[in-house]
TrEMBL record:
Residues 7-25 have a biased composition (Low complexity). Residues 1-28 are annotated as: Disordered. This is Sugar phosphate transporter domain-containing protein. The lineage of its organism: Eukaryota, Viridiplantae, Streptophyta, Embryophyta, Tracheophyta. It comes from the Eukaryota. The chain crosses the membrane at residues 111-128, 135-158, 170-190, 211-237, 249-265, 286-307, 383-401.
């Protein structure tokens, strides 16, 4: 049979076929089509390749075999390599997903640990602080000690580079000063209330903070509350009133001190919006709280010495028949927890929305009330417990409906 030669010139770079790796036995049984990449080309094709400098393919047909020979060596597109690349990419995507899920789980655990510390520090502060105020009825001195310990912790934090030391201008300090004043008064009034009435009753009264927040925001910021917000205040006011009527440890000094604490604390929140402190890159909430703590210490210390004198020396405490070592330890733990729970509170606020933080604050108040009742064995009547529960339910409702914004009136 005559041999016919055809030349195909592809426009694309054609792949080089692979040599089949079959055994000789298989080739002898079945070899209808054999793909060869032999290094011995046909003579006619050699001449044609020399005269035409282009890539071509020789298709030879004979009675013996049928060969497809490339003249140029073209790299083979390996399908296995593509599969390997796909497998590597899929493995990388799976690794990224597992890393993201692991990071999300770590953040959830971290947030849960912060909430746990927030509640725990609050419980310890209220218990140890109440124990100190029972035997040492000087709330200004006790509050000053708490600010002193907080100031030392802040300076250590800045000195050891645990947190970046801020650069504060005189204008910023002047703007922060009103916040420091109301912050100082708020904590002072809280300690005055804790020294007069039960811990559970103080925190029941402090549950009425949303009431003062709505009134002050409407008066100074022009924020008109929605009907839902106003409705949520009714159970708060009613619950606090019911708990106050049936409170065994009730006295007017403790009641009005807690109310004054609500007023000053919410004034601080309104002032922070009204003054609009210009924050630099290093002026976050934790830094602002640290500066306020230091300023509160310097504001309250001379007032405490003037009003109560120097009452915390070992000689004075021993003359009063007090256990000096025990009082010092409890005061230090209370002050440490006082600063720690506020620091953790700001750390949580940086990670969650204000609504979530408000709900957490409501749960924290419930935990503090229940733990103090159990620890101090405070007598609670059913009506008193009902009033406390209604007030706390109102706080929770307030934190939820605060997100509902009134629709803007159409022109």
């Amino acid at each position: 049979m005559q041999s016919a030669t055809f030349t195909l010139t592809p426009s694309l770079r054609l792949p080089k076929p692979r040599r089949p790796s079959a055994s000789p036995a298989v080739n002898s049984r079945f070899d209808p089509i054999r793909v060869s990449a032999s290094s011995k080309p046909n003579n006619f094709n050699d001449a044609l390749s020399a005269s035409l400098p282009r890539r071509s393919w020789s298709l030879s047909s004979s009675s013996s075999d049928f060969k497809l020979r490339p003249w140029t060596s073209v790299p083979l597109v390996d399908s296995d390599a593509g599969t390997k690349r796909f497998e590597v990419r899929a493995t990388a995507e799976t690794a990224d997903e597992s890393t993201e899920s692991g990071s999300s789980l770590f953040k959830t655990l971290e947030l849960g640990a912060l909430f746990g510390l927030w509640f725990l520090f609050n419980i310890w502060f209220n218990i140890y602080n109440k124990q100190v105020l029972k035997v040492f009825p000087y709330p200004v001195t006790v509050t000053g000690i708490q600010f002193a310990v907080g100031t030392v912790l802040v300076l250590l934090m800045w000195g050891l580079n645990l947190y970046k030391k801020p650069r504060v201008s005189g204008a910023q300090l002047a703007a922060i000063l009103p916040l420091a004043i109301v912050h100082t008064l708020g904590n002072l009034f809280t300690n005055m209330s804790l020294g007069k009435v039960a811990v559970s009753f103080t925190h029941t009264i402090k549950a009425s903070e949303p009431f003062f927040s709505v009134i002050l925001s409407a008066m100074f910021l022009g924020e008109i509350p929605t009907p839902w917000v106003v409705a949520s205040l009714l159970p708060i006011v009613g619950g606090v009133g019911l708990a106050s009527i049936t409170e065994v440890s009730f006295n007017w000094a403790g009641f009005w001190s807690a109310m004054a604490s609500n007023l000053t604390n919410q004034s601080r929140n309104v002032l922070s919006k009204k003054v609009m402190v210009k924050k630099e890159a290093n002026m976050d909430n934790i830094t602002l709280f640290s500066i306020i703590t230091v300023m509160s210490f310097f504001l309250l210390t001379p007032v405490g010495i003037f009003m109560e004198g120097v009452k915390f020396t070992p000689a004075v405490l021993q003359s009063a028949g007090l256990n000096v070592k025990q009082l010092y330890i409890r005061s230090f733990i209370a002050a440490l927890c006082f600063h720690a729970y506020q620091q953790v509170s700001y750390m949580i606020l940086q990670r969650v929305s204000p609504v979530t933080h408000s709900v957490g604050n409501c749960v924290k108040r419930v935990v503090v009330i229940v733990s103090s009742v159990l620890f101090f064995r405070t007598p609670v009547s059913p009506i008193n417990a009902l009033g406390t529960g209604v007030a706390l339910a109102g706080v929770f409702l307030y934190s939820r409906v605060k997100r509902i914004k009134s629709k803007p009136k159409s022109a």
